[in-house]
Write a structure and sequence with these properties.
The chain has 227 residues and is of the alpha/beta class. Helix content is 37%, strand content 11%. The protein has two domains: 56 residues; 158 residues, Lysozyme-like (3-Layer(aba) Sandwich).
Length: 227
């Protein structure tokens, strides 16, 4: 092979190698670009998912408390009135309040076997549940009628509220009274229930769990309700 032929062969091989190297570099660049795009998409989806999870309301559970402090109202009443299903117009006509007749309790300890908490709402006294804390039971979340309260059958169109305590021995705490007033007033407004349809205990059952006890300031409390 002469000198010119060898030069041409060498140039041809160099050119081929150069093209192969350029092609390999282009493919690597394309692969990196694809990886970056996929990574960005994955990161974006993860961020969006995290935001949706953070913004989603917490599920209703039998023992999920929401404290509504009457002094500064850290948590709005709307939070405790959230429901899993829509409230049908005209579903509720009464609000019924009674005592637990126990020194302590919360939605879990006062649940009745497999039927769960008989009431829609529970207000703590500081023993097993923060003083004035309100718990929403599953019956409210799913818009079901109240369960059976010992000694009385509660109407199915009645929102049932239980105050933790034995009010034959002492009255409710200041926080309980304030929170009960806030809760009832909010329910009245949302459900269109008049004050004469708010029952503090059942007639003739004041000293039982179906009543509010002899030490509950019934007249004073009713006078504070919206008319």
């Amino acid at each position: 092979m002469n000198k010119d032929a060898r030069s041409k062969a060498t140039y041809s091989r160099s050119s081929t190698k150069g093209k192969a190297a350029a092609k390999s570099a282009a493919e690597a660049k394309s692969a990196r670009r694809t990886w970056f795009v996929l990574a960005a998409l994955t990161g974006g989806l993860a961020t969006t998912g995290g935001l949706l999870t953070a913004l989603a309301p917490p599920p209703l559970t039998p023992d999920r408390p929401a404290s509504l402090r009457a002094t500064n109202q850290d948590q709005p009443i709307d939070q405790i009135l959230e429901t899993a299903v829509a409230i049908k117009p005209g579903r509720w006509h009464w609000i019924y309040v009674h005592q637990s007749l126990t020194p302590s309790g919360n939605a879990r300890t006062l649940a009745q076997g497999t039927d769960g908490l008989a009431d829609h709402f529970l207000i703590g006294n500081g023993n097993q549940l923060t003083d004035g804390a309100i718990q929403a039971g599953p019956r409210w979340g799913w818009q079901q009628g109240p369960g059976e309260v010992p000694g009385v059958t509660v109407r199915s169109d009645c929102v049932s509220i239980c105050l933790v305590g034995n009010f034959n021995q002492h009255g409710p705490t200041t926080a309980q009274e304030k929170q009960l007033l806030v809760l009832i007033a909010s329910l009245q407004q949302q459900l269109g229930i008049a004050s004469d349809h708010v029952k503090l205990g059942m007639d003739g059952a004041d000293t039982s769990a179906a009543g509010v006890g002899t030490q509950f300031p019934v007249a004073t409390f009713l006078s504070q309700l919206p008319q």
